[in-house]
Specification:
elongated, 5 helices
Amino acid sequence: KDFLLSPQKPVWEKLESLYADDEPLDEEPEADEFDDLVDALESNYQRGEEQSSSLIEDTEEIKAQSLRALASAIGKKKALS
């Protein structure tokens, strides 16, 4: 009868107090670290924009030229930049 009125707690609840971690997982980034992260993201975005602008967008131009001509045109653009 006693075990029905006050059932035992599961084992993991007994051990929880021994292994509880009260420290936060991650610390808040400092202002300098956050600014560096934002700068890196912005420069990466700008680099991606520059690369996408160097692509040929006109599909007719792609269809009309050979792969060799397209590759040399891209090579020339990279050499200029």
